[in-house]
Amino acid sequence: MNNFFLEASLLICLLGAVISSLTKSQEKIRFITIYSSFISALCAIAAYLLFKSLHQGFITLSEFTAPLPALASLLYFVVLLCTPRTKFIGTDKPFPSSLLLVSQALSLLICSSSSNSTLFILLALEPLIPLIDLLRRGERIRIFLIHWIPAWLIAMALAFASHLSDEATGILITILVVIRMGLFPGHAWLVYLTEKCSFTIALLFITPITPTLILLTNNQLLHNTHASLYLSWLAIASIFYFAGLTLVQRSLRNFFTYLCLALSAMVTLGVCSHEPLEITAAYSLRNSLWIALTGMAIIVRALEARHGGLSLFQNHGFYESTPMLGIAFLACGLGCVGFPGTSAFISFEMLADEIIPSSPFFGIVIVFSEALISISLLMVYFKLFCGRKIEWSNIFKVRLREMIALCIIIFLIFGLRFLPLSDISTTHHTLEKIASLHPH
After folding, report:
1. Is the pLDDT of residue 126 over 70?
2. Which of 38, 68, 223, 354 is the most buried (most CB within 10 A)?
């Protein structure tokens, strides 16, 4: 039954994308997009709640992947729900409604896929969504293609070539993960994407699912070929580099980009490990950070929709007009750094406790980088919501849809750990079973 609901969720997204692309009225497109995403999210949540045991088929669900489709669909719906009406109607650049629904369907496929080859194919299809949007907006795509043409070739080689040696496979996966995760030095295209692409597509693309699943699936191979060691060093360098860059950004959107890159690199470091507890912590941390970063992105977009591009050179004093955004910013910031009480707290603690005994240097860099990120979040909060007192018009007030979306995000930040299948013990038990069933 849960597979039926998950397949229905996928088909609803695709059907909604087709109907919205054929519809001329922008108001109807907005209605179709939001409600298609909403019904799809309901079906995915039903599949999660009705999950009992492993189900094989066109879509595969296990204890390990059961929470992911529901979480992905819910975040897509939340982002679309709080998208301003002016983004859909009356803009020079049309809102990518059908692309977002296709992207949601693709995320559902990625979250419920267990085949290694399928993951590589889906990873190659993922960047087509932002690429199409860049072309629709008339932006240059050179920097995007410089990174993704070799990535596409590597993904296709890994998906269809069966004669590759383990060493070659490890090297190719390392290059692919560096590009897709935006690890240093393969991060320039993600910074360009958040500046030039539709921010709605960018924020749902910049927190990746596929690379972490690929790293988990190929963990033993990467460990045997020492590719995981190279990825770990690239990840630790990226964490420190991007955490430092968050302190010196003067554009709110660029700050958000480097915050995502730093936290994604931290997840990569944990997933590259061969220790079950460290992998469990990284996987759980990825889900928690996914929620917190989505909430942070909603706040960034809400502020930019009201005031345009925001500079961090000066204090803006937005708290008087939009106190809900200020409260949500603090809540999402606490979720990003694993403050006690948030769903990421236990994951951060487990990751640090597992890394420090085996590699004190890595542990020191993680703790120091987390401190830098915490300082930068406080600095940005003061710049945005404190300082001069300005009386803004009522048009800047938080709308009901934004209030609902932010309340859902805050609830997940502080309550995700209480969901049964997302519990750390369940994740650890499932990872141990996967390791015993797939030793290579």
Report:
1. yes
2. 68
